[in-house]
Amino acid sequence: MKKTFTWSVSNGFAVLLLTVGTILAIITLGISFGSPISVDAMVTAAALWLAGVVFLHPAPVRILIPVITLVSLSLGYATYFSTSGSWLLAILATIITAGIISYGFSLRKTIRQHHSHWYD
Predict the structure, then answer these.
(1) Helical H segments across 32-86, by residue range
(2) Nearest to 40 by CA among 51, 32, 49, 52
(3) Quick one: which H or E segment has residue 28?
(4) Dihedral angle sign, alpha carbons of residues 79, 80, 86, 92
(5) How far, in Å, CA of 38 to CA of 27, rounded?
(6) TM spans, by residue (predicted)?
(7) How many degrees, rounded to 5, is the angle at CA 12 between CA 46 and CA 107?
(8) Can you give the pLDDT at residue 21?
(9) I need a labelling partner for 99 at 20 to 30 A (CA). Which of 4, 65, 70, 89 fits?
(10) What is the mean pLDDT of each run of 10 residues along the chain (120 residues)?
């Protein structure tokens, strides 16, 4: 049975975090691409996106997949400019981040599904 999205304080906060993270990333890439400040701003945007998805209940796949992609690319961007242009490390950081985040959200889903059976 599929849960429907309902507006709550938690979901409103999640939308706010996702929006602020997106605005921060767009402004950062437009104004100071490749600078140390942009690296910090992209990591902050990635953290805002992750926090937004955590507060979003239920997190639809159509939002979860783009957020995982954006967070992974943001951390790949940060790695690339932090390591003086190492493509290999940036690609590895992107892939590892995507794997860890995907596993984390699937683990959260599994725990939530089995939570009702813990006290039987």
Answers:
(1) 36-55, 61-82
(2) 32
(3) helix 9-31
(4) positive
(5) 9
(6) 12-31, 37-56, 63-81, 87-105
(7) 55
(8) 96
(9) 4
(10) 72 93 95 92 95 84 89 95 91 93 77 61
